[in-house]
Prior knowledge:
Elements: H1 9-50, H2 57-77, H3 83-100
Helix pairs in contact: 1-2, 1-3, 2-3
Amino acid sequence: MKKIVRLTESELVRLVNRIIKEEDDVENECEDFIDLMGYIYDSYIESMETNPDEIDPEIEFENFENEIRDILYHADQIDCKNYDDIEYNANEYTQMMFEHLGLN
């Protein structure tokens, strides 16, 4: 059974503004994913350069790849409009890490 709800103009405006704000928050979060991948990449590189003798390249790559995969999963779950860009950057960072670790 459908229910009719009556809203005042101010309630309707507040509801619409809240929906717009939530959409903006999701868009901002989606835009931040690419920056986050860059930060993760830089952190791994810095850590490996600081402690090169303690690095197992295959394990480092697997850990890095898992973090990138988690970002892609989250971006997909919240239906990012820029998912293709996020995925492209994920592939680029993964390839750069692969090459940096000499796994090619």
